[in-house]
Structure formats: structure tokens, C-alpha cells
Amino acid sequence: MAKRRKQRKRGKQASYASTITFLVLVAVIAWFFQDNQPGDSKKATTQQSATTSVGSSSSTVSTESNSVVNTGAVDYGHVDDVHPNESLAGSVLTDTVKANLAANAVHFNGTGAFILNNDDSDLDPNVSSAMYVNLSPVDNLQRPGVANALLTKSARQYKNRVTTGNASKIEPVGWQQLKIGGRYQYLYNRGHSIGYAIAGSVSGFDASEANIQNITTQTAWANQASNGDVNNTGQNYYEGLVRKALDQNKRLRYQVTPVYDGDDLVPAGSHIQAKSTDGTLNFNVFVPNVQPGVAIDYTNGSAKVVN
After folding, report:
1. If exposure means fewest CB atoms within 10 Å of the residue's CB, which of 82, 116, 163, 302 is most exposed?
2. Are strands 114-116 and 282-288 parallel, antiparallel or unpaired?
3. Domain residue spans in the chain?
4. 7 by DSSP, 3-state: which?
5. Out of 3.40.1190.10, 3.40.570.10, 1.20.1440.170, 3.90.79.10, which CATH number does the structure's domain 75-305 have?
6. Cα gap 306→181, rounded to integer Å
7. What's the pLDDT tens digit per position in 58-94?
8. What's the whole-model pTM score?
9. How many other CB atoms sit within 10 Å of the CB of residue 177?
10. Where are the compositionally biased (Low complexity) regions (predicted)?
């Protein structure tokens, strides 16, 4: 009996040892295959992790002073969007464009444009001069440069273009028109630096859409948005502020500078400033030349609808 008990005990001990050995072996094999999974599978897992990380922070525009950046893929939005999102608006703010803006602080305003230097213009409206519009000569690529104006209410034009003989048009450099549908239907407008309604009555100023010194290839959003709509701040919104100030008999300086990235034919956007002598009008902004739902090649103006 004692002998049989010893044999059973040794059998149980052997069984326990075998079980432990088996479990250890399984753990070692599992560890080996986890650390040495097939290359494509492991690469895919790594890429998925990286993509998730980038996706959570890509295409953002920092609102910190002097640190506007665009990273990762652009979120183009949709052609029916009211205004560009921060990703699309910031996509044109390359290092070159930021250097041309020479702003110490750049902040996305949430409605399509960027506020520069806390919206404080560096223009001096208290100059001793009669009303004027001064346009820079086009450069060797036929691109318009900075446009300056000193304006009063008498500069305003309320009549139709046809009535005043300002209805002629040109196709500015980079003009490759594209039907996009949505709220604007077509991608490009003949974008004026100094607008017809603002300065169409200034003597000697050609306010037509055929003035090569005053017309750029500008997106429909950047040009048209939006008369009186604070939720859609394209160039027309800021021109509306100027029109209102002039109608209130303000005297003001106004400046629009098309900003290019290198030798691109289509501007990345427009740097727009205005300041009245009494200080009630004062803004300093950058309106990006973008269109929701559309990818633009600024080197030549070609584009495609992506959303």
C-alpha cells in the first residue's frame, strides 16, 4: 500500500511538471510570434498607429503668436460649406507667405480669414494728401502688386458698371476657370484689389475688371464672401466695413496686397488693411485665396473638385 501511494505521488508530481513545462513553452512561442509577426502586418500596424496620431492633429493652424503652421493632409471641406475651415485656410500659409505678411501674430478668426497683429493696421491715415488710388506696376510674371488708396465718401461709386463704362474684362494670369457647382458654381472671379464700389469715382482710376494692375485670379469665396455676414469673412466682408465707413464720411487709408508663394501665378491670398483718421475703422487681415471643396495648383491656376 505504501509503495502504491508513493507511485501515485510521483505520478502527480510528474503531471504537474509536465503541465508547467507546457505552459511555459506556450508563453515563449506566443511571445516569439508577437515580436516577429510578418513584415507587412507589422508595418501596417505601425502605419495605422502613425496615421491615427497624425489624423488627430494634422491640418491644424496654430493660434499661437507667430506660429501658424500646416501639417499633414488638407481637409478641403465641401463646395457647399459657408467658409473654409481652419485646415484649408491655413494650407496656403507657407513659410514664404508668412514671411511676406511680416506679422508678429497670426490668428484664425473661425470664419475663413486670419487676423494679423491683433487686427491693428500699421497704415497712417493722417497723411497730407488729396484722395488717390496708387497701383504698383505688374511684375515680370504679370502679377499685380500692392495697391494703396486714400479715400473719402466722394470716392464711392453707387452706379452700375455698365452705366459708368467700367464693364470690360481680362483674364488675369493663372486664370483656368472651373465649374465647381455648389453655392458659387464657378471657381474663379476677377478679383480686384481696390474695389469698384469703394473707389470707382476716384479721378483717373480704372475700376474695370480689365485693369491688369488691379485684377488677380481670385476664388469666388475669397472675392464674394460676404456682404454684412460676420460668419463669412472673405474680401467682400472687409470691403463692406470700408463702404460703411465711407458712407459715414470717414477719411481712411486702405491697402490690399496680393501675396504670392514664390513664382506662383495665383496668389495665396490678400493682405488687407484699413484705418480711418478717427480710429473707428481699423483692421489688419489675411484672406486666403481658397475655395471649400477644391484643390488648387497655385503655380498655374489649375484645380479640381475634391469634395
Report:
1. 163
2. antiparallel
3. 2-56, 75-305
4. helix
5. 3.40.570.10
6. 12
7. 333 433 333 333 445 999 999 999 999 999 999 999 9
8. 0.77
9. 13
10. 44-66
